[in-house]
Amino acid sequence: MTDSEKIVSLKNARNKTKEAKSKENNETKQPELVYCSFCGRPNTKVAKMVQGPGVNICSECTMIAVQYLILEDKLPSGEAQRILDIFWSKINK
């Protein structure tokens, strides 16, 4: 997976036409360096990066936030805990 494939951009998602998307896919681009707005890591050092309007969040910070929200209730469901365990085991390899 290239560094540019690791970035999921939500900026201007509604404004893109099919024509613009196909043109974008056909062009070869330099990998864009994007930093997480929460931890400051670049997209080259994380599994995935999601871009929003003026903000970016890496997969690790996203999972920390999800984990916090789940564990705030003190009783994560078995399925939620399984997903968290799988994610952290893959990240820590």
> What proportion strand?
5-15%
Q: Helix- and strand-based class?
A: alpha+beta
- Give me the strand/helix succession: EHEEHH
Shape verdict: elongated
What's the end-to-end separation, in Å? Answer: 17 Å
User: Averaged pLDDT, please?
Assistant: 77
Helix content: 25-40%
In the sheet with the most strands, the strands line up as 1-2-3
Biggest beta sheet attributes:
3 strands, mixed
Described by its quaternary structure, the protein is: single chain
List how many beta strands DSSP finds: 3
Radius of gyration: 16 Å
Low-pLDDT residue spans? none
Structural domain tally: 1
- Count of runs of 4 or more consecutive helical residues: 3
Description:
The structure is a single chain. By secondary structure, this protein is an alpha+beta fold. The protein has one domain. 39% of the residues lie in helices and 12% in strands. It has a three-stranded mixed sheet with strand order 1-2-3. The protein is elongated, with a radius of gyration of 16 Å. The two termini are 17 Å apart.
Summarize the structure.
The protein has one domain. It is α+β, with helices and mostly antiparallel strands and 93 residues long.
